[in-house]
Amino acid sequence: MSAVALPVLMYSLTGSAAYTGALAALTAAPYLAFGLVAGALVDRTHRRTVMVVTDLVSAGLLASVPVASALHALTPLHLLLVAAGVASVGVWFDAATFGAVPALVGGENLVRANSAIWSTATAVHVVAPSVAGVLFAIHGPAGTMALDAVSFAVSAALVRTILRPLNLTRPPRTSLKADIREGLDFLWREPTVRLFLALGLGQAVAGGAVSGLLVVYAVRVFEVPQNDARIGVLFSALAAGSFAATVLMPAISDTCEPRRTTTIGLSAGVGVMGLLVGVQLWWLAVLSTALWGLTSTIVIVNGITVRQLISPDHLQGRVNLVGRMMTFGVGQPVGALAGGVLADALSVRTALVITALPLVFAAGLGWSRVNAERGGELGHGLK
Fold first, then answer.
1. Coil, strand or helix: which one is 134?
2. Do the beta carbons of residue 232 and residue 131 sit within 8 Å?
3. Which of 154, 169, 280, 330 is deepest in the core (most CB within 10 A)?
4. Which letter, b or e, does each residue of 121-142 get, where b requires 16 or more Cβ atoms within 10 Å of its Cβ?
5. What was the pLDDT predicted at 377?
6. Is residue 380 part of a domain?
7. Per-residue pLDDT tens for 11-32?
8. Range of the domain at 212
9. Looking at residue 179, which CATH number applies to its domain?
10. CA-to-CA dists, residue 291 to 163, 234, 296, angstroms
């Protein structure tokens, strides 16, 4: 719910695409600020405890929004702080989750496990934005966020019931600096992970722009009122595309090697951004948004799975948090901020064209590596 409510609240309070883009940027920036430290610390502690505590903190932060709104004290700064706070504790939750999933299911089941996780989340997201659009008209966006606070509390209770160990190994105690260096050394030596980080960065810049501008896109390009239920439909379309990707991923992974899968996803994403820029009809905008969810999720899930397959258990948090840092800590904030500034200075469509350029570069890099592998120059690590 908050993925829809926060940008709607921000745009309602400020009327600024730049502020709305900044909200998306602050949601992602904590990966850059805390990623290395969080990954190293979580790799040496109990993952279950980290997940429960961070869920409860997120619930409290989100609950503060409807409270402030009821007291007529809600401000843009409050929304920015909540977005940054939830994202900050989310870094620690993600670090624990990246290691917990392989520990629970094993490497041979990772693709299906990641697809199941994403499909469950996106199934909720398909319904939630449309429901949010209806609830906005009844309770307003701030009141709707109370439901998200409850969902985090429920998540904490469910994680607490997991009985199987979420840590396969207990690494020897070393300094935090040494732990961080160990993770970075692994990344430097591992060419496949480096390649997927570069490809994911291009995807993240474009994705940051799309997510940061989605509300602005509906309001300015198609003249949809800010509290109209159609904004929820747009977010539902994005989630529906993501859900379709998670359903397709196991079959895709059985028939297409990971580099080619990601490169095809990037190339298709370039075409989809062209559709977002060019469409004139609302239903085509909804369809294009769904296609963006499909292509971008294929790239994201594939990248996560590759990192988890290659990384040893005691490095899962560090390696995967660096991946998050590059994509959600660097690429997404840059894309969101650039998209907002360009939309205010030029137009929403022009902003999408410019922020698609890193995606074009990533697709080109991916095809060069696929062709190099075919010629025998690459051949490391994956089928």
1. helix
2. yes
3. 330
4. ebbebbebbbbbbebbeebbbb
5. 45
6. no
7. 888 887 778 777 866 766 787 7
8. 2-161+175-374
9. 1.20.1250.20
10. 38, 12, 8
